[in-house]
Every structure is written in C-alpha cells, then in structure tokens.
Specification:
CATH class of the largest domain: Alpha Beta
Radius of gyration: 22 Å
Largest sheet: 7 strands, mixed
Strand order of the largest sheet: 8-7-16-17-18-15-19
Shape: globular
Helix content: 25-40%
Distance between the termini: 31 Å
Structural class: alpha+beta
C-alpha cells in the first residue's frame, strides 16, 4: 500500500491540514507538515500524482511530460530526497550545438571541463573562449545573494552587455539558456539566468533512471498510506476547509493550495496569474541510436521554414529502461507559442522529423513517431523584475505554494512547498517543534 492509494467509499476524518494538489510543492509541504506531527490530507483532482513531473508508458517506452531536466546542484533536491534512491543518471558533460550546418561539443559543467571544452570550442577567438570559461567559473564560485543583488534586466539584454562576442552568445549561451529556461525570446530575468548558469557550472544535468515521475513518487512514498486521495476535485477553498465536487466538505485548521498557477488563480480570484512558456515534446523511436551518448543537442539555428526545435535528447542513452530492448527513444522539444493547423501539434511532426535529420546528421525518415505532448502552461514566465519569494501566506489558515511562487523549476516547487509548510507551522504555533528535524529545516 502506498501513500497515494485511495478509498473512494468513505472519507477519512477531517485533518489538521488539507493540501490541494499532489505535485512537487504539495507533496514536499505535506511531508514537512506530517513530520511536525500534523494530520494531513492531500487531495488531487486527477488520477495521478506529480503534476507536470509525470510520465506515461506507451508500448514499453517511458515518456516524460514536459521534458524537464534536473540538476545535481538543486539545493532542495539534495535536502528533500535521497539522491541514491532516485538513481540519477547524469547527462554527458557539456552540450552539443548544431550551428552553421555542423555539430560541435562545447563547455562541460565542472571548472576543469570548462577549461578543456572552451579550448576546443570553435566559437571564436581564444579571447572569447577565455572570457566564457572565466565567466562560468566566476558564476560557479559566486554566492547566490551576490547574484541576486546584480542589476536586473532581461536575459537577452544581459547577454548583449557582458562583453562576449555575438558568435559566442548565439553559438552557445543563447541556445543553452533557451533550453534551460524554456524561453526562446530570453525575456526571463537576468538574475534567474545567472542562477541557472551557476547551477550548470556547478552541477550536472540529469534524469532519474525511472523517469521524472520518480521524484514525486519518492516524496509520496515517504508519506503515511492513504495521505494522498486521487480523483478529488476541489471547487472552493477557505481558511476552514475545502468543498469538493463529489466528496463534500473537508474541514481543516489550515488549507494549502498547491496546484498549478492557473488552477490556483481560479480557486483564489485575485491571485496573480503569470504568463507561461509553452513546451511541446515530440517522441520518436528508432532501431539504432542517432547519438551514442546522453548529451543535450541544441539547435542554435532558426532556418526559414524549418520547425523551431530548441533541443533534443536520446533518452534511452540516459537509461536503457526508457525504451524496449533494441530500440532508442528520442525526445525533441519545440518552444514558443504558435498556431497549429487542423492537425494540432502532431501536424508539425513532419517538419520536426526533417529538422532532426539535419541536427543528428542521419536520416530520420524511418523513425517511428510515438507521441506528442503539448503543455501550453508548462513554465510560468519570470520576466524582470522577478520576485524570488512571492508570499505563500494569504491569511491565517490559507496558504499557496508552487513553482509560480519562487522559480519555475523543480527547485522552486520544492522550496515553495517548504516555505508554505513553515508558514503553516508558524501560524499553528509549531515552528519551534524541536522534536522534528523537518520542522527545524522548514523554519
């Protein structure tokens, strides 16, 4: 029996806290609250946990929703989860970039790799390479508070003002940040971009061997059985409880809203609704791997008439369990808002396939198109000025958390859940509970 088993014929007694939403933020908050001694119910409208960090199986292939990458430098990932149990699989150091009709490897994350890769990168003169390596090394060593104190502008403007050549920016930094921020216009706050590059320079991009759904799965598994109730749709909320569509009212001393930003704004009118960056991921299967390593392939070009591919990754090179034996799974991400024709996102697949032939340098004509996943609200936008710590306390007894309250990442979701748990414990007079390690950490 797991934490997210559900008994539909009877409803448990009213808890101390109701958490609405079983994504990363809600599960992280529930874990901290339960560790502090509170009775918690997590109610989830869908039939699965994880929110945007979910996946589904298709004929032996594991298809991660949204194509999210983790970073071994995420502090909350380290704090909240046993990384050994997640079996994180790091991508190969650096990235491959397709530019000017050819593919090249550049800039690994650790400082020694930075020096080695920048010496090889055919992106410009030696001065450019030295500047790039130096900039990444400085970011890796800079404390976060100092980065957050920098003047704030858009990422695009910051890249143009920091002394790097256009060739270096367009051939590496722009496509890398486009992929990591899911923002092709790079209108994201430059402070967010600095944090992302700092994490890239200090850690490794990675995925769990069992897919991204393993992250919320590990959080849920640590909760008491029956904590998470699936298929419970909340229609209204207040400081004293929630009203559900089919299960009546659930009373509580506190309610924590942990849904996505759009759903949160519908339940709490007046709550800020951000813009979003859509993410569309295409999944293809092939008999042989088009790239014999798990390395992020970035498209630095935007050729006229071609599909606007951001990046691609052979997921079965991350771990063989992503695909059946003898097959490879390729995930390709297209970013930005676009008007799909009558065929919807799937109608763009032939153009994506044609672009993949150019990116990988092998024919994709015989690749099998498995599926496409389009998330119009995948990533909350973070334009300047960006508030890294939006309030999680609406009023005593009512709280909100999610990546839209911090940064649009797994790190931001986990951190906002911890901050919301802290606010609940403080209002209930339990933040100083010395008997709970989680309560002390949350405070």
């Amino acid at each position: 029996m797991t934490a997210y088993d559900i008994t539909r014929r009877s409803r448990p007694a009213d808890p101390d806290v109701v958490v609405v939403g079983a994504g990363l933020a809600g599960l992280a908050a529930a874990r901290a609250l339960i560790a502090a001694g509170l009775d918690v119910q997590v109610v989830e409208a869908t039939e699965r946990i994880g929110g945007r960090m979910a996946d589904h199986q298709l004929d032996g292939y594991r298809l991660d929703h949204g194509g999210q990458l983790l970073n071994t430098d995420f502090p909350e990932l380290i704090r909240r989860l046993d990384l050994d149990s997640l079996e994180l699989r790091a991508l190969a150091p650096g990235v491959q970039v397709h530019s000017a009709g050819r593919r090249y490897r550049t800039v690994g994350p650790q400082p020694p790799a930075i020096r080695q890769a920048t010496a090889r990168a055919p992106l410009g003169g030696s001065l450019d390479k030295a500047r790039l390596g130096s900039a990444l090394s400085r970011l890796a060593a800079t404390p976060v508070p100092r980065l957050l104190a920098r003047p704030e502008t858009t990422t695009a403007r910051a890249l143009s003002e920091r002394g790097l050549s256009p060739r270096m920016v367009d051939g590496f930094l722009r496509p890398l940040l486009t992929a990591l921020l899911s923002d092709p216009a790079l209108g994201t706050s430059s402070r967010v971009a600095d944090l992302v590059l700092r994490g890239y320079a200090r850690g490794r991009l990675c995925l769990p061997a069992a897919g991204t759904a393993a992250v919320p799965g590990r959080l849920a598994d640590a909760l008491p059985p029956g904590t998470v109730r699936l298929g419970v749709r909340v229609t209204s909320i207040g400081a004293g409880g929630v009203l559900t569509e089919e299960h009546g009212r659930i009373g509580a001393r506190a309610v924590l809203l942990a849904t996505d930003a759009r759903s949160a704004a519908e339940l709490l009118p007046g709550l800020r609704l951000p813009d979003f960056h859509p993410v569309t991921t295409y999944y293809h299967s092939t008999a042989g791997s088009p790239l014999a390593e798990a390395v992020l392939l970035l498209d630095a070009e935007r050729p006229s008439g071609a599909a606007p591919v951001s990046h691609s990754l052979v997921l079965s090179e991350v771990h063989p369990s992503y695909a059946p034996a003898g097959r490879s799974l390729v995930a390709t991400t297209v970013l930005g808002r676009r008007s799909f024709d009558a065929g919807g996102p799937a109608g763009l697949e032939p153009a994506v396939r044609a672009r993949l032939t150019e990116l990988y340098g092998v024919s994709a004509r015989e690749w099998e198109f498995l599926s496409v996943r389009h998330l119009p609200d995948a990533v909350p936008a973070m334009p300047p000025p960006h508030n890294f710590r939006r309030p999680v306390r609406v009023l005593a007894g009512l709280y909100v958390c999610g990546d839209h309250r911090d940064t649009s990442s797994a790190q931001g979701a986990l951190l906002s859940g911890r901050r919301a748990a802290q606010a609940v414990l403080r209002d209930l007079g339990m933040a100083g509970d010395a008997g709970s390690r989680e309560a002390r950490e949350a405070a």
